[in-house]
Write a structure and sequence with these properties.
The protein is α+β, with helices and mostly antiparallel strands. Helices cover 45% and strands 18% of the residues. A 3-stranded mixed β-sheet has the order 1-2-3. The termini are far apart. InterPro entries: DciA-like. This is DciA family protein.
């Protein structure tokens, strides 16, 4: 009886995600969210850019994660302009919500 030879294949995280449909869909949503942030980044005042991260994008609603309430207040003023810019650039975003990240996360 011959021994069973197992072929060990090393996959990158990207390759593994592409092979699993649910992971591939998640990866696509992450890329879409990052593309939204890239599209509106020029509208965000330079001092605030480091305080903003892209969050989930679901059913046309995109979430911005913000590190301070002061930054969130300023960004709220920019939301209509951001939605217009996203629409102009072909992103299917109908609304943006802002979530303030708790300290220590």
């Amino acid at each position: 009886m011959s021994p069973v030879v197992r072929r060990q294949t090393l996959w990158s995280l990207k390759q593994a995600a592409e092979e699993a449909p649910s992971l591939a869909a998640l990866q696509a949503r992450i890329r879409a969210s990052a593309a939204c942030l890239e599209a509106v980044n020029p509208l965000i005042p330079i001092p605030l850019r480091g305080l903003v991260q892209s969050g989930p994008l679901e059913n046309g609603e995109w979430c911005l994660l913000v590190k301070s309430s002061a930054a969130a207040t300023k960004l709220r003023q920019l939301l209509p302009t951001m939605v217009k810019e996203l629409t102009r650039k072909g992103h299917e975003v109908t609304g943006i919500r802002i979530k303030i990240q708790a300290l220590g996360r």
